[in-house]
């Protein structure tokens, strides 16, 4: 055999190196096409998927909060619509559109629209994305009422506990001096008339024109205690609203609480004869009963109310409202007919 020529040895090594390179390259590129590349581990934020906020069943009414005509108080009103599972979306749209009736006014700046409403992995927290017109709020007081109306409206809906507000898709940490850097829970009071350090109770009075019931938190009346809030609420209702509140009492002046008891979910309220001194007027009678019912049934242990007058059951009030049997909480509060 002829000895191997140096040139042939160099060609051989070159061929081996070239073949090795080709095989390595084929292994690399072949791996990309032969199987899918493992997805990188996503972080907690990017792993969240937007989901529409849908109820498990269709509903056709919701409580939406507007303002009294003078802009002082938030007023819950019942609005009905074609039954849908998108109750939260419908509620916010109704809130932004305003009340469309006399005696109330909208709480949001003009032109605010809903861009999106959704939940992420925490189904109890709803994200509300509004247009930039929200930033036109004039001051902190207006911002507080607008935000509170939105949170109150949404947290009335099943399973909604927290609200995050966005503007044009971006988180908002402050609105006219109002801090919004954490999810917003339902506020403890709706319209508070108490001062720092005072103990209070929520009752329902009428607005200045006696058209709508307004929930307000007032100081505990004299002789009432925080340990017996239902009784305190009745006493506060009988005392009437503060003189400078621009609200109207729903119970005739001079009416006294003769007896009060709670048993098996039934509150029995015995009032003096002055309770019927209004003498007539269906609006006054409706306001009397509804304010009493909404005031008392806010407490978890009460679902029915029996009204007595001078210790006796009566079948009817002067305008024909039946009170002979226990009454339950009305289905609609300040119902707006569309």
TrEMBL record:
The entry's keywords = Coiled coil
Is Coiled coil set as a keyword in this record?
Answer: yes
Where does the record place a coiled coil?
120-160
The keyword Cell wall biogenesis/degradation is assigned to this record: no
- Residues forming the GerMN domain are 88-176, 230-318
Q: Which domain of life is it from?
A: Bacteria
Protein's recorded name: Spore germination protein GerM
Q: Which organism is it from?
A: Neomoorella humiferrea
| Native organism taxonomy | Bacteria, Bacillati, Bacillota, Clostridia, Neomoorellales
